């Protein structure tokens, strides 16, 4: 009886040891992202958590750990914490700012961790193994193409800009280069800082100033919400199109519902964090080569394909 | 008793129906690739089958089906067969030839299938949703950088070319642009058509013609095998480096073993088919955005990282 108990205890011990060994053998992917400080980053957090859930369920040998940080300084501390407590096989990072995160990420890379950078590049691109981002020029260009087509090649437009950044510059450049030489004319273009309230006020100014406007390009979905409210309150009927950009679920829902004023959308999807996580897993689990660069297109979201871009449970 | 039996039978019936419904609900990813007609494509077949095994085990809702074809005409028939018997949610294709496969792939796209194209592009790039390829310029450039460094910035080289194609042109361009302005001098450069025997003979010619050679760039691993044999048979000791390209397992093994003449390798990995399959799964399973372009780097494979590129069970 004693011996049988002992064997059972020994067997249990082996199981526990095996369990621990397995936990230690798991490949760890840390995902470091900004906290949900506005709609788009809230989407990033949602999709990172979804990816972790899906990957952890699908691959028993992998553990995806998601950590959000409300500032660049806190993201630097988070990286120290994540890498102090265990060896990271991979780090997927959307840096809060390029300057402050470059050296801390380099330190993790130097310890032998695979580095995937999403959206905002580091100041030293040699640190990243994989870089993945959207295409802001295409966001502007594809929106412009649709407007040219829909308005029959001519019309009076007003445009809203975001915050002066490379992102905003590229979107505007893609748009302006595409309408060049057509009958589409930009009556006015001003900054509203990716802010719904500012966009509402700016659109009210535009409406007061221009008795005829065919279309508005809000360049961003938060700003589009302000624009739509201003148009609605004005009671004006001359405005045929008001388009945004980014893939906010409220706007994608309009596209699904066949909204007349906002029949299309262009994505700069926060779900790109998920693509980066899946690709990093492909490298760790399947030894698939992923070192390189991914440039995501910004295909027009129409009623036909909108469901692919719609996440009713996401905050964004 | 009768009623209990009936309930049990009804329950079993529901289970069977549920099982059938699940099988029908599986998202199908067809993978269409050339048959294993030489080393590199044999690697493609191996990695596609590995990916199918891994994905089918990890994601119960997905079925990856791999089909190999020994010619462009047979790949066209294979596509017809694959899409006739069931709805394809996605097609991952490495086209045998661009011209013959473009229209058949377009027909599948038009039926609503997601299209991932690997390595060889179609003649109409608007058909693909995702395009993934390696970087042949980097294969040449990164090899050249290593040679410049290893030979101290000067030396006499001989180079072998493959088959006159864009692939070969890009590799050679990457190499020649990088050595420009250094003390590395190409004594001779001739075609050996990615063939081991031809490379053996060409290298014998080079050895007869040039009494002093510091390094050989074979540009491809099949050709490198011929070159190494010719050098070995000659008994010459002036040749310090003989490098290839592609990531053949025999050459990666040399790197792992610290071979003096072939201490590094550059990948153009057949395992890129696996990356394409994982990314397509990310889109189908996780709604992750993958429409766009992936350009894989050709980082130098050294003794430090060679295990990541080594597949002892692969034919290549």
Automatic annotation (TrEMBL), chains A, B:
One GO molecular-function entry: carbohydrate binding
Keywords of this entry: Signal
Pfam families xrefs: Peripla_BP_4
Domain Periplasmic binding protein: 29-287
One Gene Ontology CC term in the entry: cell envelope
Subcellular location: Cell envelope
Keyword Signal attributed: yes
Chief localisation class: other
Signal peptide start-end: 1-23
InterPro entries found in the cross-reference section: Peripla_BP_I (IPR028082), SBP_2_dom (IPR025997)
Stated family: Belongs to the bacterial solute-binding protein 2 family.
Identification of the protein by name: ABC transporter substrate-binding protein
Organism field: Mesorhizobium erdmanii
Taxonomic placement: Bacteria, Pseudomonadati, Pseudomonadota, Alphaproteobacteria, Hyphomicrobiales
């Amino acid at each position: 009886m004693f011996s049988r108990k002992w064997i059972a205890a020994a067997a249990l011990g082996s199981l526990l040891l095996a369990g621990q060994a397995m936990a230690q053998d798991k490949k760890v992917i840390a995902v470091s992202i900004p906290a949900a400080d506005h709609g788009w980053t809230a989407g990033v957090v949602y999709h990172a958590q979804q990816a972790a859930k899906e990957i952890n369920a699908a691959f028993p040998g992998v553990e995806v750990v998601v950590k959000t940080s409300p500032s660049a300084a806190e993201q630097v501390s988070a990286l120290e914490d994540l890498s102090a407590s265990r060896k990271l096989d991979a780090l997927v990072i959307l840096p809060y700012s390029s300057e402050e995160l470059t050296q801390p990420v380099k330190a993790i890379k130097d310890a032998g961790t695979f580095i995937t950078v999403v959206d905002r590049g580091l100041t030293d691109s040699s640190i990243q193994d994989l870089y993945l981002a959207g295409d802001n020029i295409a966001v502007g260009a594809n929106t412009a193409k649709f407007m040219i087509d829909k308005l029959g090649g001519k019309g009076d437009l007003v445009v809203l800009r975001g915050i002066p950044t490379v992102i905003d510059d590229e979107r505007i450049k893609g748009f302006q280069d595409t309408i060049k030489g057509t009958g589409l004319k930009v009556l006015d273009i001003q900054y509203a800082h990716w802010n719904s309230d500012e966009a509402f006020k700016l659109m009210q100014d535009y409406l007061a100033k221009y008795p005829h406007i065919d279309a508005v390009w809000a360049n961003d979905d938060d700003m589009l919400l302000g624009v739509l409210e201003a148009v609605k309150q004005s009671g004006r009927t001359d405005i045929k199109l008001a388009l945004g950009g980014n893939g906010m679920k409220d706007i994608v829902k309009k596209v699904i519902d066949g909204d007349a004023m906002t029949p299309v959308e262009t994505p700069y999807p926060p779900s790109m964090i998920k693509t980066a996580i899946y690709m990093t897993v492909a490298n760790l689990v399947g030894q698939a080569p992923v070192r390189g660069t991914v440039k995501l297109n910004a295909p027009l979201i129409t009623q036909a394909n909108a469901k692919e871009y719609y996440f009713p449970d996401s905050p964004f």
